[in-house]
Here is the input.
Amino acid sequence: MPVINRIADYYDDMTAWRQHLHENPELEYDCVETAAFVTARLEEFGVDEISQGWAKTGVIAVINGKSEGDTIGLRADMDALPMPEETGLPYASKIEGKMHACGHDGHTTMLLGAARYLAETRNFSGRVVLIFQPAEEGGAGAGMMVEEGLMDKYGISQVYGIHNMPNQEVGTIETRAGPLMAAADVFEIEITGKDGHAAQPHLTIDPIIVGTAMVQNLQTIVSRTVDPVDSVVLSVTRFNAGTADNVISDRAKIVGTLRTFKKDVRAKAMERLKTIMEHVAAMYGATARLDYQHGYPATVNDAAKAAFATKAAAEVVGDDHASMDAVPMMAAEDFSYFLQEAPGAYLFIGNGPSAGLHQTTYNFNDEISPIGASFFVRVVETAQPV
Ligand SMILES: [Zn+2]
Ligand SMILES: [Zn+2]
Here is the structure.
């Protein structure tokens, strides 16, 4: 079964919505105009309930089915990125330094397409809760919605989301059981030594020597602490120290990212990081302080829901174009917060040949909007039949 015919008819409208959103990107929690646009469309479609102001600018809509039943959640992110656009498109960003470079304009459009169809047809039981969230790109908008009680208030029993993927074949849909994307934490280490003249190193405690030893030893977390079958990334991305060529400074700062898929691996790696930091500092007579910031948790699909969503996808794109063999990524995604509350799945939809996500020449492929919308609809109609 291909794209739902009625949704294929929306193609021109969806393209117009998407390109309007693309022209008017907004950042993080500041999705005011985007939320107003989404709300206006939802009102036109005749959804049963709209609730604004979730996570500041998020929009929730409810569509009731033909009979009693469960509540299913579908999510799209709405925010753009703080970067210039260099696509040269006629509908390129009108706002300097802001760009829809992750395709959230397309995600919002796909969910709007599904909303329109579901409000027209209502061939499902229970109800659908549509989640339009701000602040996926840092800020954890999904986390804020969860904290505000979204999942409990509506009793969402399963939840689905989809992200476009450049250079994956157009319209193919992939996911996998278990971890799909990583937890991404940030560590900041501040080393304090003793300053002095560069010609008298014996009277100093050189924080650069301490820091370089720390950077070297931190790499052993990946190579010698964690089971080799578990994926971990530890990257030191900043190392700042010193002010002059003849001064040994008294402090250095090391900043990096630690990415993991499993909770126990995350905890173990963090613990080891702290131990290495303290002992390396002590070895040189320095001290060190750790500021560890937990970022988005890992995006972990429920195995049964991932299989179910793949089957629903296959009904739209065919068996050959829906798979559970997606390769996990060490990037992070805040849909993870919803998946901590209810079983569900996150999936990737092929954007075709294109620049990568977060590149200045990236663009969402409008051809896939009806496919994504049809996917959402099939998920609802199959999960909650009348
Ligand atoms: Zn992104
Ligand atoms: Zn994204």
